[in-house]
Amino acid sequence: MSHASHSLKQLALQKFKKNFWGVFSFYFIVLVGVVSVFAYVMAPDNSQYANQMHLSIHSKKPGFAVEMLTITSGLEVDQNIFDKIFFGKKNTDTEIPISSFAINNDTLSYTEYASDGLQGVEKAMPSSAFSNNNPQDFIKQKTFLFGTDKYGRDLLSRVLVGARISFFIGFVAVFISLVIGIFMGSVAGYFGGKIDAFIMWLINVTWSIPTLLLVIAITLALGKGFWQVFIAVGLTMWVEVARVVRGQIISAKEMQYVTAARALGFNDFRIITKHILPNIMAPVIVISAANFASAILVESGLSFLGIGAQPPMASWGAMIKDHYNYIILGKPFLAIIPGLCIMSLVMAFMLIGNALRDALDVKG
């Protein structure tokens, strides 16, 4: 029996490897996962939430470059390396975009950057204001590969940091939906009767409420915030899992191996967890992949409505909300780039779901 199970797993893996889009989507999702975890290591702006604002260079096109003067505050921030890598650097320095500068007689003279052909403010600082008395070391050219948003923040950094919310909400929401859905579906399908009728009534009531409306209600009840959104999305996605598990268990509990387990005196908990569930997980895995995509879309919708991740936290949905009106102002990239990110990640989960469905299809 173990050998047969091992062979079925190998066969499913071989079928999955032959699906180009499934394998491509898998590696793409892994890449997004790595970016989500190490976003601050990869982002040009590694400050917390990539929130360095430069209003004078707002809404610049991709590839925009400007010289940046960094003025150190001298304040020491107590922050360990772990905190910097995973949660961003607590930045106390001031960055000033400049259009020109000159160093004469131990004095730095510079002109602040101004958009639309305007003349920037001219200022001067003594060289002694810099730690090594050499202002040249504090002036670097900075290139914004994705341009800047309406607050002058680096759009690439915001996209990388925003991937964390969209990616992890899928995992948390799917985990919550699996725990609740498998439990409710197992109890309803195995015991039947009044328990089944009550759980099915609960499923139908939950399913009759529009998902986004239910998430909004739960979010408002729990309060606005990062984890509240995760929990709210997860609590609305368990019904699909429960219905699938219930249907599969109703079919499986009449099988001979379940009858044999009962004859051997095994209790109901062991029969469900050790014998039935391992044999019905294929459709649950497939629906979980689809729920990943749904969770990302729901979170993006919540952020667009302003009740998802709250500023200054980076979120792809919030980025679209902030910049959708720029589409008609000649700067559509500000909304299109995060929109393409959402579309790509959702498409990857849908493709991997289709690939898993084909690979786990026993009849195929």
UniProtKB/TrEMBL annotation:
Keywords: Cell membrane, Membrane, Transmembrane, Transmembrane helix, Transport. One of its GO terms (cellular component) is plasma membrane. It is found in: Cell membrane. Gene3D superfamilies: MetI-like (1.10.3720.10). One of its GO terms (biological process) is transmembrane transport. It is a multi-pass membrane protein. Residues 163-353 form the ABC transmembrane type-1 domain. PROSITE patterns: ABC_TM1 (PS50928). The chain crosses the membrane at residues 20-43, 165-191, 198-220, 226-245, 276-298, 333-356. Belongs to the binding-protein-dependent transport system permease family. This is Peptide transporter. It comes from Confluentibacter flavum.
